[in-house]
């Protein structure tokens, strides 16, 4: 499911809300999560999960094409950890 599918599904579910308003709300939520992560803040949505950044230290890697070594710079990787309720729903409350 992509963002437009999500917007359409919510608009069909909540028929009293215009599609444009739903689209703006979805965009705003994504923007707020992204902005918080840019500031290195953790975002937790109870029952759904949390978004955080994982640090990857600089390292030497191998270029598969040439076989030579390349320097990989440090970076932060976005990470999502599902909440207990989401895990239970996905696994059928097992």
From TrEMBL:
**Which key words tag this protein in UniProt?**
DNA recombination, DNA-binding, Transcription, Transcription regulation, Translation regulation
Gene3D superfamilies per record: IHF-like DNA-binding proteins
Pfam families, alphabetized:
Bac_DNA_binding
SUPFAM superfamilies in UniProt = IHF-like DNA-binding proteins (SSF47729)
Kindly give the NCBIfam families that the UniProt entry links to this protein. Answer: hip (TIGR00988), PRK00199.1 (NF001222)
Biological role? This protein is one of the two subunits of integration host factor, a specific DNA-binding protein that functions in genetic recombination as well as in transcriptional and translational control.
Recorded hits in PANTHER family, A to Z, give: DNA-BINDING PROTEIN HU, INTEGRATION HOST FACTOR SUBUNIT BETA
Quaternary assembly: Heterodimer of an alpha and a beta chain.
Name under which the protein is recorded: Integration host factor subunit beta
Q: Which organism is it from?
A: Orbus sasakiae
Source species taxonomy: Bacteria, Pseudomonadati, Pseudomonadota, Gammaproteobacteria, Orbales
